[in-house]
């Protein structure tokens, strides 16, 4: 970081410093954006996992009803809920 403005620093170094400073700011912004995207992705994964788990629970209930129907020939209304 250039603190003393009276230093005799070549213009090329000043330009390089400006470019590096802008790059650092952009990297910081990208890190924030990536962090937010990771949070959202985590939420989506949790949502999908819950839906998948619920579908397996529903599948198990339907399968149990089908098995009972095949054994007894009728369906108990309590089992379908």
Question: Can you describe this structure?
Answer:
With 81 residues, the chain is mainly alpha-helical. It has one domain. It contains two helices and no strands. The longest helix has 62 residues. The radius of gyration is 31 Å and the shape is rod-shaped.
List how many beta strands DSSP finds. Answer: 0
Structural class by secondary-structure content: mainly alpha
Average pLDDT: 81
What quaternary form is this?
Answer: single chain
Radius of gyration (Å): 31 Å
The major sheet is characterized as: none
Topology:
Blueprint: H1 11-72, H2 77-80
Summarize the structure.
The chain has 81 residues and is an all-alpha fold. It has one domain.
Keywords:
about 80 residues; mainly alpha; about 80% helix; about 0% strand
């Amino acid at each position: 970081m250039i603190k003393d403005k009276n230093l005799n620093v070549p213009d090329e170094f000043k330009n390089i410093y400006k470019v590096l400073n802008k790059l650092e700011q952009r990297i910081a912004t990208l890190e924030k954006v990536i962090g937010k995207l990771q949070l959202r992705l985590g939420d989506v994964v949790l949502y999908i996992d819950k839906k998948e788990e619920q579908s397996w629970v529903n599948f198990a209930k339907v399968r149990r009803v089908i098995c009972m129907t095949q054994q007894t020939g009728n369906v108990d209304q309590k089992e379908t809920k």
